[in-house]
Amino acid sequence: MAERKLISYARPDFYSLFMLKKIKKFVKAHFSAIIIAIGIILISSLSFALGLITAKLIEKQPLKIEKPTYESSQELAPSLRHYP
């Protein structure tokens, strides 16, 4: 029976080190763009949260839908006279 090799997570292998170096290189190359993107996301999130909090704090009167009378509909749209 073949002996199984235990994977050690304490010591990173070559591929992990290679990927970390690539990520580090990418971050160094695009640092300003990454900072701008993070700033835009944070400002957008903050604006949304403040708008949501403000909307919940404002007490609004509930909308009341009333059926219009025939006379009021004629005042609003005189062209509807032929359609009672």
Estimate nothing, just give the exact number of structural domains.
1
Distance between the termini: 93 Å
> Which structural class fits the helix and strand makeup?
mainly alpha
SSE topology string: HHH
Q: What is the overall number of helices?
A: 3
Evaluate the radius of gyration: 33 Å
The 3D shape can be described as: elongated
The largest β sheet comes out as: none
Task: Please report which band the strand proportion falls in: under 5%, 5-15%, 15-25%, 25-35%, 35-45% or over 45%.
Answer: under 5%
Overall number of strands? 0
Percent of residues in helices comes to 55-70%
Which spans of ≥5 residues are poorly predicted at pLDDT below 50?
none
Mean pLDDT level? 80
Please tell me about this protein's structure.
This protein is mainly alpha-helical. The protein has one domain. It is built from 3 helices and no strands.
Question: What are its keywords?
Answer:
60% helix; mainly alpha; 84 residues; single chain; 3 helices
